[in-house]
Amino acid sequence: MEIGRQLRKVLIICEEPSARDTMRVLLGSMLCQCVFASSVQQAIAVLEQENPDAAIVDPGSEGSSASPMVSGFDKIYSSLLGRVLVLSGKESEPEVKDLLERYPLPLVSRDRLLQELWGNLESLFRSKTVLSRVVDAARLVFDSFLQPMPAGVRATQLPARRMVYQSENLMADLWLEPQTDSRHIALVGQIVDSARPDRQFDTVPVVLQGRKGAIALATTNKFGEFHFNFDFEPSVTLEIEVRGNHWVSVVLPCMEWAQRAAFAGS
């Protein structure tokens, strides 16, 4: 189905590869295409080539000077009409504090990217309209809870749960396991192509969505495997980017069963 929201282009100005990858995966699940620059000077050239809708500025890893990032910022800010936000650690450098004093910029903590990034970025887009992404809903084809118990066996508590979902040739094999006496739930999954068993799904983004937005993200290994360990949420959805701008949505069953299993008999 088509999602009636625009695909936004976001310029990420960041030197650290791991931070860039995290933001690419997270924003990709939120209808954003990412372009990158490692410095403000490089970003100025990217601005002219890519015409992004907004920018995220990460002044750098701890211990590095923010001065090069701050230099030339006027061009970035004026070109994007203020649609810029800044990432910050627990203690901002003097140059970053000066930047925030000179410009009215939204500030997002690196430790709270999942919770804060999209809400702040979306507020910059609110007045504009938008290429949509494609999201296919996967259907449930197997659920271990729906299989009959062997004759004479009585379940004393709910076990872990295996489910298989399908969207065209894509199969998502999931294993959900509540952690005993805990609100944590382990989710292990693998995606495969039923028409091409030898197909590799290396570094495919997988985003775990709760009621209020993304709560975790991961990328697959070359075997298409991924895992999450997350706090209890009443309802969660997996979103898997199977190819550029094309996602598969996996709506998991209500998680109340997991809480009952975790605390059974306690």
What's the total helix number? 7
Poorly predicted residue ranges: 1-5, 127-131, 153-157
**CATH fold name of the largest domain:** Immunoglobulin-like
Supply the number of structural domains: 2
How far the N terminus sits from the C terminus, by CA atoms, comes to 44 Å
Q: Can you tell me the CATH superfamily of the largest domain?
A: Immunoglobulins
User: Number of DSSP strands?
Assistant: 15
Q: Biggest β-sheet: count, sense, barrel?
A: 5 strands, parallel
Q: How much helical structure, as a percent, in the residues?
A: 10-25%
Would you list the SSEs in sequence order as H and E?
A: EHEHEHHEHEHEEEEEEEEEEH
Assembly type of the shown chains?
single chain
Basic shape: elongated
Beta-strand portion reads 25-35%
**CATH architecture designation of the largest domain:** Sandwich
Q: In which order are the strands of the major sheet placed?
A: 2-1-3-4-5
Write the layout of secondary structure elements.
Blueprint: E1 8-13, H1 17-28, E2 32-37, H2 40-50, E3 54-57, H3 67-70, H4 73-79, E4 84-88, H5 94-102, E5 107-109, H6 113-125, E6 134-137, E7 139-143, E8 161-167, E9 170-178, E10 184-193, E11 205-210, E12 213-219, E13 225-231, E14 237-243, E15 246-251, H7 256-262
Parallel strand pairs: 1-2, 1-3, 3-4, 4-5, 6-15
Antiparallel strand pairs: 7-8, 8-9, 9-10, 10-13, 11-12, 11-14, 14-15
Helix pairs in contact: 2-4
